[in-house]
Amino acid sequence: MSTFSCHLSPHSTHTYTQISSAGPPRPSLPFSPPIINTGIRIRHQIYDTPARGCTLIGSKDNILTRTDLGICATDPTKHIDGTEIRAYWIYRKLKKAIYGGVYLAYELRIKTPTTQSNSSPGYELTGSYVAIKKIEWSKVRSLSGRLIEDPLKEIACTQFLTEEGGGNVLRSIISLSDEKYLYSILEYCNGGELFDHVEASGRFTEPRARWWFRQILSGLKVLQDRGVCHRDMSLENMMVNNSSALIIDMGMCLRIPYQDSAGNTVSGVSGTATNRLLLRAGRGCGKPNYMSPEILAEQSFDGFSIDLWACGVMLFIMVTGVPPFDRAQPQDPRFSMAAVNSQLRQMLVGWNMAASEECMDLMQRMLRARPEERLTLAQVLQHNWMNGEVDQPEHGNVT
């Protein structure tokens, strides 16, 4: 038996009933504006890593570097503030995105005298990769206010979550901007989306699903500890890096309002503050088969509860290979059976899909149509199924 323990903050135990009784729904709190530094794309010589002889690769375009900090007079490898100079060779496009695209880039550093051949200037590979979201400023301006997904808020939220360590959340490294593009430079994950791993396997065994579900909940705990609701939790928004998984795509995130014992709204999460319900936010939040019934019904909602609902759907897909329903609405018979009438077990038996009693019990308790009947994060983490054996996958490779 593999015991899973996780330090829980007090507000992860707050039930929907406690939250809703605290008062009427409130609007979300704003994130601090994102920190965006000035950058420029240049052409320069690139050398291999010192470990590989530091041979010249060639003169390359699309080298992105920061320009708003000067170079240290006594050490040309550092900025004047003492930080090491880094640049990024944008190598190839990984996928399209609404506002531009996501690219694989090599991290570079200034070629130092100890590794320099014939004192030639240039950059050398560090051996590390990053992912870069290249965002067109023209699309940001033209789509402002028309889409729920907001690239500036995504950067602000990712930086906010990175302030105290990312955990199982994708880490922000730096954001740079030139006249045409905004570049969000992020940790690179070498294993693709978790959804792709489920699809390739058909479905996971419960020990394998348990391994990944612990990763998902560890990431969700980071969000809840910082008072953030993701609103788009899905297997497609979990990136695999070696044998861990990181939550990505923060463009729909909301900061949850809290109130102190006197009933005043507070901006920070504390042990005595109570999180509040959020005002309804429309249907376009997330992917249809992960959306909770209260989002689809355009009702006010508990940000933590809707993320946990989506996690219940994720667990169901990992264990069975298929989503529990198309939409969490009464006209979907599977939703009515599994979530309204609490017959998830009977539905799985009818599908001839084997799952342990503990696993079916956990999924049922997470997928209740009424949010006041759902488990909190603390209750999910303490469920017996979480303490079973795990099947840790092998480390992935950079592709």
TrEMBL record:
Start-end of Polar residues biased regions: 1-21
Any Pfam family the entry gives: Pkinase
Record-annotated Protein kinase domain positions: 88-386
Signal sequence interval, chain numbering: none
Positions of region (Disordered): 1-30
Domain of life of the organism encoding this protein: Eukaryota
Molecular function via GO: ATP binding; protein serine/threonine kinase activity
Protein name: Protein kinase domain-containing protein
The organism of origin for this protein: Triparma laevis f. longispina
Lineage of the organism: Eukaryota, Sar, Stramenopiles, Ochrophyta, Bolidophyceae
